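Box 3.1 A note on notation
Throughout this textbook, protein chains are presented in two layers. The first layer is the amino acid sequence; the second is a token string describing backbone geometry. Keep the layers aligned when reading.
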Amino acid sequence: MSDQIYISIHEESALKKNCTLCHKEFSEGDIMGLCPKCLAPYHVDCWEKYNNSKCAVLGCSSDPTTLKNIQVLKDEKKQKIQELLKLLNKVVETDSDIQIFDFWTLNHDQLSNEIKEDTRKRILLAEKRVGVLNRFKQAKASDKALEIYFKSKDLLDPCKDFSKQDRDWISQELSKLRDEFIPDFSQELLRGDDVNLLKLIQPYAKILPLENLLPPEYNTFLEKAHRRMDVLAELKEAIREGDRPRVWSIYNNHRNIVNSTREFYESTEIQGAIKDAQLFVARQKYQNARRTGNPDQLLLAAHEYTSNGGRLVASEYREIQELYETNIILSDLDKAINQNDDGKIAFLWGTYKNRLEHQINGTQKTRVNQAQANARIASKVGLAIKKKDFFAVE
């Protein structure tokens, strides 16, 4: 066969054709023959063995002749792919996302199965950056460009194609927003109205993170305002649900925060709900202390309950009064034991035995018995001395 011609990259569409005689598709590496007259494609075997070197196309005037052939060589295709891969690597080295994206758009069909994983990741990153960059440039005429920038800041800031002009534009727009926002923000801070303060920042917060708009010291005030509003919202929810233990728990744990809100001072409803919750919880503590029978806890619980406006019936007052007096007597007994004052120990026990016998522990009971014994001996000695019965004293 003569006149050998090799298919070029732009003629690969010929591979999609079928053999004129057998109508089967050509495969990569097949030898494709073209009729010298009409250029109809054939398998070489179909041309030479089965059609006597004649064209099967109706009306073609070719005589038996040698078929012009085009051989699709795998090596040639691989070579061209290697050339494209080298070009891709050079484009990636430029670190220009736009160039990477454009090159890949033109050649991805041929290279999609040939590139390495790290190159694929870099191409995907370029696609994301170029997409965001295009949206940003289109939105510069509206008020959406800053919002797009801050939502995709991590993509745009490292982007080599994100121009100095674009960066300067962002700085100018931020400066305008600060001049517009900070005076109003400062005024609401002075008024101490967290509700209006948070309403003021809502439209700005949709555009950008407020830490990029406010000086650092203002961000601290804003964080505190958010915290106050969160606690107050939780407190009002508990009030709506009638959950008095939760109302008191929230207030008691965040008393300073709640007390610093303007809404708390202006709302008699919130103040009343907190007072009611405090009294309810104090009453529960008092009732639990009565059930457990611990005198110290009962005294403290009763004091807390009555201090918050609670009322006790006469029998409860007598019980509390007795407990109070008993605690004083127990304190005096402990003091006498520590001072080894047997006389006082014996006196307290003899006077208040009915109150003390269920209140003292084993060690105290032993000491009381010892003091009583010592007191009896001392009494006998004193009586003997008085009678001048010195033998009895001895």
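Strands lie at 31-34, 41-43, 68-71. The CA atoms of residues 5 and 356 lie 122 Å apart.
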